[in-house]
Amino acid sequence: MDESSIAQSHGLPDRRHRLLVAEDNRSFRELLVAVLMADGHEVVAVTNGGDLLDTLAVSADPQLGSGKFDLVISDVRMPGSTGLHVFSQMAGAPRIPPFILITAFGDQNLHTVASGLGVLAVIDKPFDVDDLRKFVSEFLATGGA
Length: 145
Description:
Elements: H1 3-9, E1 18-22, H2 26-38, E2 42-46, H3 49-60, E3 71-75, H4 83-90, E4 99-103, H5 108-117, E5 121-124, H6 129-141
Parallel strand pairs: 1-2, 1-3, 3-4, 4-5
């Protein structure tokens, strides 16, 4: 049985997707990282908007980065910069990965602005982590990344 067959039989992705999680709340960040890694993804985590921007900039440079990210899951409100602001700054750059924004402060305006900028989804906290896992898996499985 090859690696792809083993992964499929365990409900894991055919290949490891590289995800970037940006969340300033330590316990929530650790939860997201743990469940996404349990789903077979490689996960890099950062704690603030400045680190998110820096990590994306480095990953977009083929000479500096260790590879592009297939998906970013970012809190909206974080120290340094908001996830939405980082996305808007990176929107014109090559190799910008799709973004899912998560927030405890979502309103219709945030959803409208984020959608208009091209954010994949805005998910309001509190949410069921299993719903996020399913959304991520389905998005990546359909070749969204």
